[in-house]
Structure formats: structure tokens, C-alpha cells
């Protein structure tokens, strides 16, 4: 009888062990299944569509840069498109350590604007989300190769689009800030109704960012006096409505190209830089944390 009781107890222990093993096996299987699913979803995420952005912008007919020389006066115009912002770190890059704690520890900026391999974060605040509103930004250089002072107080610059009124450039950094903040407001309204394809900064950062760059955003003023052999550089910024795109030009009117010995204008001329609308595609490189021109690589 005692032997039979021992056998029954042993069988119960064996059954319990089997049940425990089955439970442990089920848990292990569930755990392994979760791992496989996580790996699957991570794989899907890594092979997800690369962020891309397509927009229309004016480009020079001859490319991104063009130089014209007339009677020893030389003018160079460079279009600053989004893929070219990395050539202008003083205008478009930032370091959070340079800002107050409000921005330095902001999760939006930390996550959505990661550092590139050079330790810089980048932002381009001069376009609405759907590119319908944007600034045409140009870096302009004018060089006086004459032997006299050039007085050009009567010179003017306009962006001229077919069928539209001439557009003067923004004249101050404060104007630039107001336009950028307006673009930010428009972009937020557009973002609410679309899938996020580009990153938006926290409200208020754009104003502080541009204000921190005030010394670098030198707006170009052609109505100056230029000493012989000197070069003057600055930014031209024109407010453009994308859906109004057609052939256009940036024109410099009444530029003094020849003077008498006293520097009084004897001859004035016009410089025209022809523009054409161009559809530009860019894609985001997660390895370098930068936007690049062209179609994304095939995965």
C-alpha cells in the first residue's frame, strides 16, 4: 500500500513537472515569437521608404552660379537651394549649446534635428510645407575692378516674373524673420492635414535661430560706394509664390560701370540673370543626417 502511494505521488510530481515544462516551453515559444516579430517590424522599419521631398524652385539657366562682367564691374549670383545649405554653415547650422535651456533640452530639436558627422544640426526655415510659399535666396558678390570709386545709390534690384509686378528683395533681417515666422505658421497648418514628410521645429525656435544669426544674414544693398578693387557680398531674398512660376530673371538696374576721375557716373548698365523653374527632389540620408539632391538609393 505504501509502495502504491509512493508511485502515485511520484506520478503526480512527474505530471506537475510535465505541466511546468509545457508552461515554460509555451512561454519560451511566446518569447521567441515576440523576438521574431520585433525583428520583423524593425526590418520593415529599416527598409521603409526613405523620406523624400519634392519642390519647385527657380534656378539659374546656367546652373547654381553665374558671373557676368561688364566694363570692369563683376557680379556673381549663386542660388541657395536646400541641398546647398551645407555650404553655408553660418546661415543654416546650429549648436544647441549656444541656446538657452528652453531649446538646449528640447526633445523636438534633439530628436528631429540630429547632429551630422561634423556635430552640426541643420534647418531651412524659408519654405512652407507644400512649397507654395518660399524665399528665393541668393548669395551675391559684386567686385569693382575699375580704378575709381563706384557710387551706385541709384541702382536697383528686382526679381521679374513674366506677367507679374517686379518683386524687390527683402531689405532687413527683421523682414527676413517676419517672413520665416509666417512660413512656420503656414507649415504647421499644412502639416496637420498631411503625413509628416519633413521635420518642423518647435514653435518660436525659428525666430530665435535667425536672430542668433543676425550678423551672418547680411542683406545685400547695391546702393553703396565701392572702392577700387574691393568686393561686396550679401544675401538677396525674394518672396516667391510657387504656383506663379514662369520664366523670370534677377535684374540689376542702373549699375555704374564707368566713372570720371572724381567718381561721378559716366555710364550705367543692366545685369540680367535668367531663371527657370526647376522641379527638385531631395532625400534624407540617415547615416549623415543630411538632405541630398536626387532620387534616394534603391533599397
- In DSSP terms (H or I, runs of 4 or more residues), the helix count works out at 6
| Gyration radius, rounded | 31 Å
First-to-last CA distance: 73 Å
The assembly state of the depicted protein chains is single chain
Structural class: alpha+beta
Shape: globular
- Sheet with most strands: 5 strands, antiparallel
| SSE run | HEEEHEHHEEEEHHEEEEE
The residue fraction in helices comes out at 25-40%
Describe this structure in words.
This protein is α+β, with helices and mostly antiparallel strands. The chain has two domains: 1-45; 54-293, no CATH class. The chain is built from six helices and 13 strands. Strands 1, 8, 11, 12 and 13 form a five-stranded antiparallel β-sheet that branches. A four-stranded antiparallel β-sheet has the order 2-3-6-10. It has a two-stranded antiparallel ribbon with strand order 4-5. The longest helix has 45 residues, at 2-46. It starts with a helix and ends in a 6-residue tail after the last strand.
